[in-house]
Task: structure prediction
Amino acid sequence: MYSRIDYLYADEKIKPEKLTEYTQGLVAALKKTSVIEQFSKSLGLYMPKYNELKHFNARHIAETYHTAIAEQRRQAEEEARRGPLNL
Result:
């Protein structure tokens, strides 16, 4: 995830210590390896803009991610319940 965060902010000069801090914070907040892996694939959707990194909150980012995933699952279940005719 470190390299993905580094790539996301490639145009900016972020210190390696900060990248490590962001990575460790997200890993601690997301907890499960499978969740971390899935999150890293959509990292750009949830990470703050560069000028907002001073207010970085890994727990808030993880909560936003979990809420979005729960909503996607709910929509998928609803579509499956409707069936192919979308009734």
Helices lie at 2-8, 16-30, 33-41, 43-46, 58-82.
